[in-house]
Design goal:
Layout (H helix, E strand, L loop, with lengths): L6 H14 L6 H4 L1 H39 L5 H11 L5 H10 L1 H19 L1
């Protein structure tokens, strides 16, 4: 009985990997065994970094809010604490956008937070 290899499926599997590795440098794009390893590593990095990207954006928003708040004589932590006490529920993404693109609206929020902190000091 002849040996069965299922060549069409094997070829399709290899072709799929090489197609995904298109654009890699040298043997990484042409040799199946090398391409498979490089592709797996690349996909693992992509998965990890999709999660990491969220943390990086949060850090950027915090920096932008901090910069905007310091223009009005407050620190970031005082501002966020004041927002919580005041019951203003705006997320950091929105606050960062306001600080960058709508400074007058951001100033109004900062003044609202400052007003509540001043009353407590007196």
């Amino acid at each position: 009985m002849p040996r069965a290899t299922n060549a069409p499926a094997s070829k399709a599997r290899r072709k799929k990997i090489l197609k995904q590795a298109k654009g890699y440098f040298g043997n990484n794009a042409t040799v199946y065994t090398v391409a498979k390893n490089v592709l797996e590593k690349g996909l693992a990095y992509a998965y990890r970094d999709r999660k990491d990207k969220k943390g990086q954006f949060r850090a950027l928003w915090i920096q932008r809010i901090n910069a905007g708040v310091r223009l009005h004589g407050m620190s970031y932590s005082q501002f966020i604490g004041g927002l919580e006490k005041k019951g203003i529920s705006l997320n950091r993404k929105t606050l960062a956008d306001l600080a960058m693109n709508h400074p007058e609206a951001f100033k109004a929020i900062v003044d609202k937070v400052k007003e509540s902190s001043r009353r407590k000091m007196k």
